[in-house]
């Protein structure tokens, strides 16, 4: 936690010290900061890995001319659970590249997930390479973005590991609707194929993220929503979940 807080602080200092760009020019760097409250840590595999409130905090920096980005993400339990006692405490590091040609977008990246026992034995950690393609269909105040994503994860090169090599495929669609300049709606429906290498069994998961977005200023907004998760095949390890969340987002 201390390391992630220091890194976030350093990135914020770098952003504040960056010279301003002319109004007509695209800034060299852009920044995205978010802090999110979740009633449970429900991950994209349909598992509740911390059955209590967590705070997710992230900071991403993008070099606009090249599309390269770097980011830090942290999960911290805020329900009185002892820090670093389960998988609800997590630090992630991301490096990647985004591009867009017309309405066609693509992303490539790598990530390191510092999971159970942060900063200690890496036996419970994962490294991941991922890629995603998407196509944007704007129409009026609406936009539909179908996408497909592939994730390949491996444990770090240590003698004993808690997790295994795994592959996960995701397909879905994102939807946004701008009701007014201050209020909008968003949703993301995705289908996830879990190969079961890091779970009791392989299964498919359907998840729906959605909610309302409230614009506070040009650079600040809040979202209020929920994540619904439903296994599509018979499974003993996962069940239907509905988890509310709220977030503060700052972009500059």
Features:
252 residues, mainly beta, Porin, 12-stranded antiparallel beta barrel, two-stranded antiparallel sheet, 1 helix, disordered N terminus
Q: Mind explaining what this structure looks like?
A:
This protein is mainly β and 252 residues long. The strands form 2 sheets. Strands 1-4-5-6-7-8-10-11-12-13-14-15 form a 12-stranded antiparallel β-barrel. Strands 2-3 form a two-stranded antiparallel ribbon. A hairpin with a 4-residue loop joins strand 4 (54-63) and strand 5. Mean pLDDT is 88; it is low at 1-23. It is built from 1 helix and 15 strands, in the order αβββββββββββββββ. It has one domain: monomeric porin ompg (Porin, Beta Barrel). The longest helix has 16 residues, at 2-17. The protein starts with a helix and ends with a strand. The protein is 6% helix and 58% strand.
């Amino acid at each position: 936690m201390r390391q992630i807080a220091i890194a976030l602080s350093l990135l914020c200092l770098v952003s504040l010290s960056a010279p301003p760009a002319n109004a007509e020019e695209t800034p060299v760097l852009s920044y995205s900061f978010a802090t999110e409250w979740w009633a449970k840590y429900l991950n994209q595999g349909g598992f509740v890995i911390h059955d209590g409130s967590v705070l997710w905090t992230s900071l991403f920096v993008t070099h606009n001319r090249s599309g390269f980005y770097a980011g830090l993400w942290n999960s911290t339990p805020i329900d009185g659970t002892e820090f670093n006692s389960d998988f609800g405490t997590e630090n992630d590091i991301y490096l990647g590249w985004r591009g867009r040609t017309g309405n066609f977008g693509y992303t490539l990246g790598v990530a390191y997930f510092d999971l159970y026992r942060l900063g200690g034995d890496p036996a419970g950690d994962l490294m991941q390479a991922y890629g995603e393609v998407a196509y944007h269909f704007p129409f009026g105040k609406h936009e539909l973005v179908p996408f497909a994503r592939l994730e390949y994860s491996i444990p770090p090169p240590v003698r004993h590991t808690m997790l295994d090599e795994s592959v996960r495929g995701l397909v879905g669609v994102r939807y946004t609707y701008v009701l007014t300049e201050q209020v909008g709606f968003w949703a993301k429906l995705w289908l996830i194929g879990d190969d079961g290498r890091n779970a009791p069994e392989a299964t498919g998961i359907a998840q729906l993220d959605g909610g309302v977005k409230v614009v506070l200023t040009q650079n600040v907004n809040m979202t209020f929503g929920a994540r619904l998760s439903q296994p599509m095949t018979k499974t003993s390890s996962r069940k239907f979940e509905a988890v509310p969340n709220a977030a503060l987002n700052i972009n500059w």
